[in-house]
Protein: Amino acid permease/ SLC12A domain-containing protein
Amino acid sequence: MEKKHKGLSVLQLTMMALGTIIGGSFFLGSSVAIHALGPFIIISYVLGGILVYFILSALSEMTVADPSPGSFFTFTRKAFGSRAGFTVGWVYWTGMVLAMSSEAAAVSILIRRWFPGISISFLGSIIIIIITLLNLLGADKLSKLESGLAAVKLLAVVSFIIMALLLITGLLRLNTGAVDVKGVKLSFLLPGGIKSIAGSMLTVMFAYAGFEIIGLAASETDNPKETIPRAIKYTVLSLVILYIASIYAVLLLIPTDILGENVSPMVAALNRWGMNWTGNVINIVMVIAILSTMLAAMFGIGRMIRSLADEAYAPRWLKDNTNIPYKGMAFSGAAMFLGLMLGLLFPRVYLFLVSCGGFSLLFTYVMIVASQIRMRKNHVYVIEKKQYSYISWITVISLIVIILSMPFIPGQASGLIAGIIIIAFYSAAYTIMKYYIKIKKHGELKDKFNAKERKTGFLMELSKEFIERRKVFKRDKKKYDK
Structure:
């Protein structure tokens, strides 16, 4: 596949990554982690940022050496074989499709606050269609749109930090009086107990989720060796600074024990000091954040499907040799639509499946670092700057611990079960696929052999008939000569 467009720049790739990452998990989901951990949440976000950096460093190391369109799917296949690559690719795609179909439902619910007469199914379907069509514009145009949406989200976070700073310093005075930071009653360090640490790390990792888009977009850059490492550095640095600054501002403005899981911590913090108008503003920002996340996610899974099809791990009709994977986008959009309808018809079944979305991401991150460890060990490529191997092992172990902690978090035990079931399903699907291909090839060879055999038999019969006729001709000629 030849690129006919200018490759993505460092800024475009960074903004696309930020657009994928900063979504509803941060604007809304962080309330649960803050409520459970109190001030300790700062440490969780720092640890999460460190883990993300190590995962992205592993991805960067492999991507620079081999900027394959399939990214971590390709690396897993090279490191652990076809079955592992097939499973990782399809588990990631399935998890993202289910997660994005739930995001379509979530953004529909938010929009219904302004337009209550429109059904969720209609709004969700329109959103999925729009997201799919926008992705057909191509990487360059999409990155510009994604940069604009990401800028809105970043502006919202920065604006909250500035308003909090003005309130704390007394430069912004409200009718409720000056903000007395000393009078804010902070919760205990670990109000949720030791188990809340694991639970918070799961929520924090979800808030960072989406950074793998950098690897999937590597083939869209002109110079991955320089672009990818710089984009990773800027992405991680921006996220850690923004997350920690905004969470710290929340801690100073509102006691953590009164935060609820259904309200954004930013909205709750500002509402406490009389700024009730922020609810609608943050609501708009959350809509933009979710749409931005869906755009970037569709960009990634569309290319994942194309990579799977190129390796014959997906139906042949999904292969696409153009710069834009039209077939992969359309197929993923249709799968999201089915996921949305499944959620509306069978909510309990759907919640069980959607909860595996987080598992699929964590499973993918484990395989990224594990692939790096295996490929280093096998000397698949030459590494310019070798990091200590124990860092990669610590990262893998930390991610596995986070995955195993899912049963300790309400509603996440089903995610672990669903994730294991999906892994087993795709592993079995690979076995069936290989068996089918083997039978098919055997059948084709047998047909060719039978055809050759029939051809040989026909020629032998023809030659026998010719010999018999020649004998008859000679016999008749002798009689005629007499």
Observations:
- The CA atoms of residues 373 and 379 lie 10 Å apart.
